[in-house]
Specification:
By secondary structure, this protein is α/β, with parallel strands linked by helices. 25% of the residues lie in helices and 29% in strands.
Length: 122
């Protein structure tokens, strides 16, 4: 439970695609939330994420973002684990990324708190 290394049971998780991973990592750091920083590549696209164990449970949340200017904190994390496996189907991540982009476009000029989209398989 200390999130210091990857375990195959972490694959039983809820994956959420975000538009600002660094905001989550900053909040985790401020609140002393333990997380496992990860990176993986799928079809030549780089992704970064943070895996968090929900306290007093076995639920793991995986917050993921495609590489961008808002993944710098996690990309330079000293404990970053580079995964050699496909974490999520590429088409699911692309579909979720498109959803985020369309929601941002629809809110142009408005204050955008955070858009998070569940990654659905299928």
């Amino acid at each position: 439970g200390d999130m210091s290394s990857y375990d195959s049971f972490m694959d039983y998780n809820v994956a959420l695609l975000t538009s600002d991973l660094d905001a989550y990592v900053t909040a985790f750091d401020v609140d002393n939330v333990t997380y496992l920083p990860i990176s993986f590549t799928d079809q030549d696209e780089a992704y970064y994420g943070a895996m968090v164990l929900v306290p007093e449970s076995q639920m793991v949340l995986e917050v993921v973002q495609m590489n961008s200017s808002t993944t710098t904190k996690i990309a330079s994390h000293p404990k970053l684990v580079k995964m050699n496996e496909q974490r999520h189907p590429h088409n699911s991540l692309k579909r979720a990324s498109s959803s985020i982009a369309s929601q941002l476009a629809a809110r142009k000029g408005a204050v955008v708190d955070e858009i998070m989209v569940p990654v659905t398989i299928g």
